[in-house]
């Protein structure tokens, strides 16, 4: 355990979050996502795991140390429900709340069609697979910057 660090953030995840730069993005995936095969194609090249939590818990933990990119409109994305692109499942509503809480304002989750999501995921810095068992618990988060005047 580390003081001030969310306990769900293990050493491998913390390493990746620290190594990422502005504009790099990560994938938070549910248990059904092809996480390992996609992760092999990312910058990090290996799958990271946060097995003991839901997508919303993982998002809250990640966003406790990583800001979203405020320079782009799609810094937070969600996988669309196949055949129902406007449907927002409960798992996505929960992650939306975690994002809004972390950023201190409403921050839209941009929909990404399923196969477009897979393609974009291959260009991610890393994939973090959660223990989320509900469908459509897959998200892409883009890292922002921390202003030099922020106190630690």
Automatic annotation (TrEMBL):
Stored InterPro entries: RbsD-like_sf (IPR023750), RbsD/FucU_mutarotase (IPR050443), RbsD_FucU (IPR007721)
Organism annotation: Dongia sedimenti
Residues of the signal peptide: none
Keyword match Isomerase: yes
UniProt catalytic activity: alpha-L-fucose = beta-L-fucose; beta-D-ribopyranose = beta-D-ribofuranose
Domain of life: Bacteria
A Pfam family it matches: RbsD_FucU
Annotated PANTHER family: FUCOSE MUTAROTASE
Keywords attached to this entry: Isomerase
Name of this chain's protein: RbsD/FucU family protein
Keyword Isomerase: yes
């Amino acid at each position: 355990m580390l003081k001030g660090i969310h306990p769900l953030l293990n050493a491998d995840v913390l390493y990746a979050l620290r190594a990422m730069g502005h504009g790099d993005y990560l994938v938070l995936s549910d248990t059904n996502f092809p996480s390992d095969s996609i992760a092999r194609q990312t910058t990090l090249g290996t799958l990271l795991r946060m097995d003991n939590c839901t997508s919303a818990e993982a998002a809250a933990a990640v966003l406790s140390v990583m800001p979203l990119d405020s320079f782009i409109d799609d810094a937070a994305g969600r996988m669309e429900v196949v055949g129902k692109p406007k449907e927002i499942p409960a798992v996505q509503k929960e992650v939306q709340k975690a994002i809004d809480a972390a950023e201190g304002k409403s921050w839209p989750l941009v929909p990404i069609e399923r196969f477009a999501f897979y393609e974009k995921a291959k260009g991610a810095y890393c994939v973090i697979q959660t223990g989320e068992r509900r469908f459509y618990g897959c998200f892409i988060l883009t890292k922002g910057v921390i202003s030099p005047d922020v106190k630690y």
